[in-house]
């Protein structure tokens, strides 16, 4: 029976040829490392967010009078509701970590270099979308934490003269975070952002498959250079087959991701949800210690340290712009970052400053 079905499909779409071309005969560089799996882990993590998000949508009510209660209901009354919510909430934090690590590894391997500049630009846009996903999702439970963390983050643009106040009000839909903010964040979170992210992911994957994966600059063959004067698919006839060798590595990394997620859910369930997450939002009661989500702590702390808010936010915009256009700014031929002490120093320095500001902001 199974054979008959397979044969039926084979006659129509040439399944065997497809499997040969895309999996068993598709070869990738022999010196590829585990960091190259982070993109796939990000896809897996994002898919889990979509699936759990759809389940949560069945019970969630996007209204200031009901949102908090509906989330409490999911946690206490809906069978396994707590599990879906925890996977979604913990998963959102881990997704940010995975996407950031993927970006850092792409930077470290210099995979953004010609001809992969577009892949970098699209990826960067996806990073910004992922952060917007988290920001919009954070408000939905309508807790004290959601309300005040969103108040802080949406307040950041007020540092800009002239248009700052307008930008903040535009995000909120009113002068304060309110039901109008909840409505627009909900629409963003469940409609606009998923559609945009899926579209960009399609372009990202198309570019990766069309150009071919880059050869890491480390290990055997790492120093080989391809002169890129006209388009061609970068292939590796002597490389390792995508299936089963590489897929096995990717599945392994996805398992590591799932283990980390379920470890946090089982043993550190409140890691990403402090006490204020269990108190309904009250616009008239500012909690004693308010701070944004951990991934916004570094820019938040930077704005507090630099005396001029405008200067702080301008520096941040410059940093984001430089990083966005980095593939065009980096003119050096050398692909191995270990042979570029200035870049390596800058990379490690920037990471340390980010981590330092995050820790400082937290305390
Ligand atoms: C939701 C976010 C993202 C997803 C799901 C994703 C997915 C992927 C996948 C599956 C790959 C191929 C395998 C690999 O190298 O890991 C990849 C490669 C790549 N990604 Fe991403 N990515 C995301 C974000 C980013 C970001 C933030 C950047 C950089 C700003 C980026 C830049 C690149 C580049 C340049 C490659 C090509 C690597 C090569 O050919 O060696 N991606 N991405």
Write a structural description.
It is a single chain. The protein has helices spanning 2-13, 15-24, 38-59, 67-76, 81-108, 117-139, 144-155, 164-172, 179-211, 242-267, 294-305, 309-324, 326-329, 341-362, and strands at 27-28, 240-241. By secondary structure, it is mainly alpha-helical. The chain has a domain at 33-212 and 240-292: Cytochrome Bc1 Complex, Chain C, CATH 1.20.810.10. The model has no long low-confidence stretch (mean pLDDT 95). Protoporphyrin IX containing FE is lined by residues 36, 38-40, 42-43, 46, 99, 102-103, 106, 111-112, 116, 119-120, 123-124, 126-127, 130, 201, 204, 208, 213-214.
Q: SSE layout and pairings?
A:
Layout: H1 2-13, H2 15-24, E1 27-28, H3 38-59, H4 67-76, H5 81-108, H6 117-139, H7 144-155, H8 164-172, H9 179-211, E2 240-241, H10 242-267, H11 294-305, H12 309-324, H13 326-329, H14 341-362
Antiparallel strand pairs: 1-2
The chain binds protoporphyrin IX containing FE (HEM).
């Amino acid at each position: 029976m199974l054979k008959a079905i397979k044969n039926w499909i084979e006659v129509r779409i040439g399944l065997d040829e497809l499997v040969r071309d895309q999996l068993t005969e598709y070869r990738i560089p022999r010196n590829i490392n585990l960091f190259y799996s982070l993109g796939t882990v990000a896809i897996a993590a994002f898919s889990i967010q979509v699936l759990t998000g759809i389940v949560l949508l069945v019970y969630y009510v996007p209204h200031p009078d009901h949102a908090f209660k509906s989330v409490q209901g999911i946690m206490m009354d809906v069978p396994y509701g707590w599990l879906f919510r925890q996977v979604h909430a913990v998963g959102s934090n881990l997704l940010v970590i995975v996407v950031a690590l993927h970006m850092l590894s792409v930077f470290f391997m210099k995979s953004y270099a010609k001809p992969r500049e577009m892949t970098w630009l699209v990826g960067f846009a996806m990073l910004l979308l992922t952060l917007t996903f988290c920001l919009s999702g954070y408000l939905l439970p309508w807790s004290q934490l959601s309300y005040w963390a969103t108040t802080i983050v949406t307040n950041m643009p007020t540092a800009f003269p002239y248009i700052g106040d307008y930008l903040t009000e535009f995000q909120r839909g009113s002068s304060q975070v309110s039901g109008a903010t909840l409505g627009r964040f909900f629409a963003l979170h469940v409609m606009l952002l998923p559609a945009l992210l899926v579209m960009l992911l399609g372009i990202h994957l198309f570019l990766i498959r069309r150009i071919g994966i880059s050869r890491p600059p480390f290990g055997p063959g790492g120093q080989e250079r391809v002169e890129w004067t006209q388009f061609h698919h970068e292939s590796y006839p002597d490389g390792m087959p995508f299936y089963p060798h590489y897929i096995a590595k990717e599945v392994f990394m996805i398992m590591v991701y799932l283990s980390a997620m379920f470890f946090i859910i089982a043993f550190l369930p409140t890691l990403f949800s402090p006490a204020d997450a269990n108190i309904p939002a009250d616009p008239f009661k500012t909690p004693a210690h308010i701070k944004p989500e951990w991934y916004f702590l570094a820019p938040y702390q930077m704005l507090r340290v630099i005396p001029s808010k405008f200067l702080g936010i301008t520096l941040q915009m410059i940093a984001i712009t430089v990083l966005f256009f980095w593939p065009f700014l980096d003119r050096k031929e050398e692909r191995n970052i270990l042979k570029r002490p200035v870049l390596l120093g800058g990379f490690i320095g920037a990471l340390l400053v980010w981590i330092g500001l995050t820790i400082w902001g937290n305390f």
